[in-house]
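A.,

Following up on our hallway conversation. Structure tokens first:
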């Protein structure tokens, strides 16, 4: 198949639409079922690049949850703790395969943003991963292969019309890439920068100790940023992104957005939140929305009379600011990557509030000294990579 006609482009009025190989070669994909759209393919191709690189950098199966051409979550296949299994709503599924753990983490980090996602997997989709996908609302999945059991399970989604894309894992794109804007063709070399130990070797802070697990997490952060719409900042802990701030014009707004998402991920693990008395039969999306509101500043939207009765068996107590801050103070050893330099130390101050201990950023700001000084104040270790990772 050398080209594939699409229903429409980014919007229904943008016709005609297709994907094809400019050199006349075969497309590196097979659409097994469904009819993926323009944005589906943008998410699929960006997502697969991300997970393939995560697998290469860590040696672990990887998964990502993409929405609107940026990852909502990305992770490698480390086992789930009992707490994580519960807040990701997979505690009823027993022991999961490493790939399924990767997707549970990627999907679970920011469930609000992942609703209706497009999934990318680094390895053949197995039964466990397919079972997890089946129960969530998503647009489709791309992987280098699918087991027979996985295909049988996924065929039950959307009356057999769920988007399933198989990609040639050995496909290598041309070294030059092109796109058009306003009728003008842009050309550039592909972003092939390897994210490795050497990239993280220039540690500029007084604290120069970055343990192996933090090095792994910094790699995950930087690889995630390579495929996130810039400006972007990514918080990572224990093998998974826990907060991604994408597409903000101001870097500190990226940091605040990513930091708030990381905070929400941690607040969901507080016993007060985990033990919320939801009514029987509540839909997964409604439960996620209620938790998001309950831990935020608009908590009365779910606690006022007439509202809480539709969600909870009994009215929960308010999760006070003081309680939330006390719980957030227990979040430690978080890693943080930035796709460009931090121009002011306010980014470090905000990162500190979300437990950041290890940072990787390009460096090169006229205020690098102030940023380093702020890291030293909090005993953080920061590496200058010397490389920017913008993605548009």
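Then the amino acids I'd put at each of the 392 positions:
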């Amino acid at each position: 198949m050398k080209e594939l006609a699409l229903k429409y482009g980014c919007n229904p009025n943008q016709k005609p639409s297709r994907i094809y190989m400019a050199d006349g070669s075969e497309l590196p994909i097979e659409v097994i079922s469904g009819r993926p759209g323009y944005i589906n393919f943008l998410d699929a191709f960006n997502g697969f690049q991300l997970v393939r690189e995560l697998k290469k950098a860590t040696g672990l199966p990887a998964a990502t949850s993409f929405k609107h051409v940026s990852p909502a979550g990305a992770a490698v296949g480390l086992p789930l703790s009992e707490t994580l299994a519960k807040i990701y709503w997979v505690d009823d599924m027993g022991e999961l395969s490493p790939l399924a753990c990767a997707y549970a983490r990627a999907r679970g980090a920011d469930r609000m943003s992942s609703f209706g996602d497009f999934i990318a997997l680094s390895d053949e989709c197995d039964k466990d991963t397919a079972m997890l996908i089946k129960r969530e609302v998503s647009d489709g999945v791309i992987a280098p292969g699918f087991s027979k059991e996985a295909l049988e399970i996924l065929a039950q989604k959307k009356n057999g019309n769920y988007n399933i894309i198989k990609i040639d894992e050995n496909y290598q794109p041309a070294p030059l890439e092109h796109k058009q804007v306003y009728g003008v063709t842009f050309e550039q070399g592909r972003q092939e920068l390897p994210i490795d130990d050497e990239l993280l070797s220039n540690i500029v802070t007084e604290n120069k100790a970055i343990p192996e697990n933090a090095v792994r997490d910094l790699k995950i952060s930087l690889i995630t940023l390579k495929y996130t719409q810039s400006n972007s900042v990514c918080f990572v802990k224990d093998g998974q992104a826990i907060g991604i701030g994408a597409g903000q014009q101001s870097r500190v707004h990226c940091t605040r957005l990513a930091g708030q998402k990381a905070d929400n991920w941690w607040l969901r693990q507080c016993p007060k939140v985990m033990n919320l008395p939801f009514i029987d039969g509540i839909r997964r999306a409604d439960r996620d929305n209620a938790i998001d509101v309950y831990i935020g500043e608009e908590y009365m939207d779910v606690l006022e009379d007439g509202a809480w009765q539709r969600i909870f068996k009994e009215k929960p107590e308010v999760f006070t600011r003081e309680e939330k801050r006390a719980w957030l103070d227990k979040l430690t050893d978080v890693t943080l990557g930035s796709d460009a330099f931090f121009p002011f130390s306010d980014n470090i101050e905000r990162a500190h509030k979300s437990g950041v201990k290890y940072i990787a950023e390009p460096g090169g700001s006229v205020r690098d000294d102030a940023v380093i000084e702020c890291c030293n104040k909090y005993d953080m270790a920061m590496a200058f990579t010397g490389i920017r990772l913008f993605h548009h």
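The mean pLDDT is 96. Curious whether your intuition agrees with the design.

B.
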